[in-house]
Amino acid sequence: MDSTNKCLKEWNATIEALGQGKQTILIRSYGTTSDSFLLYPTVSYANKDNFLEGFKPEHQSFVKENALPKKDGNKVAIKYYATVEKIFEKSPSAISRLQKDYIWTSEHVRNYLKGKKAQVWVLRVYKLKEPYMAEPTPGAIKYANLKEKVSLDNIKPVLSDEEFSKVLEI
Q1: Residues 6+ apart with CB under 8 A from 25
Q2: How far apart are the first and last CA of the chain?
Q3: Full-prediction pTM beyond 0.85?
Q4: What does the pLDDT look like over 17-40, one tens digit per residue?
Q5: A Pfam family for this UniProt protein (predicted)?
């Protein structure tokens, strides 16, 4: 595949953490049938006064700097593409063993899961050759399709093959 218009909507700070190798997984209360997608930044979480409390203290300055995506008018920059390399299930109590793989607090993750088992998505993230300025996708909550396809030519993995092979060991 050399282009796609499929997107997963996610908090911009989380996308930047994935795109800069600070985070390697997504924790979801649901699985996915999509094996790849662009990472479309959202910002609704950043409108809350206490949004930083959901992130570990050592990552809060990073989150504050990356709370909002780059914009041009009403368009947002899509900078990353991800492939789902592995999905596994964990009990809410076992998620804390994966703390090195995400930037959120354990309390935030527990509140999000509400006692449900976690679906842990291990993502291989790639940086696009150039950011794609995407028009808003109203109505879509988790997934969205852009009007145009985005080129995946010359994408570069965020983590080296060696680094990523260690991630797959979780």
Answers
A1: 98, 101, 102, 120, 121, 122, 123, 170
A2: 28
A3: yes
A4: 999 999 999 999 999 999 999 999
A5: DUF1802
